[in-house]
Amino acid sequence: MSHLYVHTPFCLSKCAYCALRSSAIAQSAIPADFPDLIVREFTLRSASLPPFRPSTIYFGGGTPAMLGVDGLERLARALAAVGVVPVPNCEWTVEFNPSPSLFSPELLERLLAVGVNRASIGVQSLDDSVLARVGRIHNAAEAEKAVAVAKAAGFGSVGIDLIAGLPGDDDAKWRATLDRAIALGVQHISVYALTVEEGTPLAAAVAANSVRLPGDDAMLARLAAAEEALAKAGFHRYEISNYALPGHECRHNLACWRGEDYLGLGPGASSRTGLMRRTNSQDWRKWREAVLASRLPPADDEDTLTSADDAEERFVFGLRMEEGVSPAGFATRFPSAAQHVARWEKALAALAAVGIVSEISAGRWALTGRGREVADSAIERLLQ
Ligand code: SF4
Description:
It is built from 15 helices and 16 strands.
């Protein structure tokens, strides 16, 4: 196991579209012992782990900076004190909200000092009216300033997230967002298509017909505009929703998509160990109660996959990446995949005939541009 994820499930307020595992809470209401309990969860789990030398660390959320400058720094130092020793050249990412209330040069400097070297900033749009419509707590100028501050502080790799199809956005605003995003000089840009998640304020607004969202064609046009603009700026689309300048792909996410093991700490964090998948309870109070009592936190999901399902999972993630998949290669690395090879190859050949995948090298297949537009249904077909 060589990857570590730490989840901070708190935000100052919930964005209208967000179904991620986070609760809106005042910073003062977050238990002061939260960072210490993350470390205690690590020690509870480490009883059965070899010395932990992560090659990637990812602090995500929610909003990690809700722990405050002192809390985040204490967390990083305390993890080191209990034996989390990053390998040299470890990629260590922290997600940031660009709101000035949660982002400061001091925060960045102190994180750089403990080894953090990659910043991922939730920008989402660079249009103030769009940001306000979905309840983001920052404006476009603050997002641009946050990126400039991260670069000036010395982060060699800065990434931002954008969402296509937000309420109030249109083709012109989206193009302007893309242009401004590229002008920021970041190394990584994630572009997600808005999805309406059940139970969110956005879903209620859609049900009440009080927001209009782009149809499938308009959404595809915006994603295509992103790919074209980013390709011109030198970014390559190494995964369906992720673009990077060469050498700046997120190694943590690549490891997860390639099916490597990772340890997740914190409420709602997922872990993968071999065939085992485990997601901690999202309820941070239940998580805290258990860890305070030196018990492993309860799980919302715990499953041991069959090796055949594991092979299929790896195949699906592989197909979402630019590097694609090699059915025969899978069978060599994972003998349980052998039973799927003939079926996968037949399905890939059928998808190639209609331009959804192409053979990028002998026996290795990847989605085409058209394939990326219909990835979910293509993958469904492969699994039938
Ligand atoms: S800041 Fe991020 S995690 Fe928090 S509510 Fe908004 S989208 Fe969700």
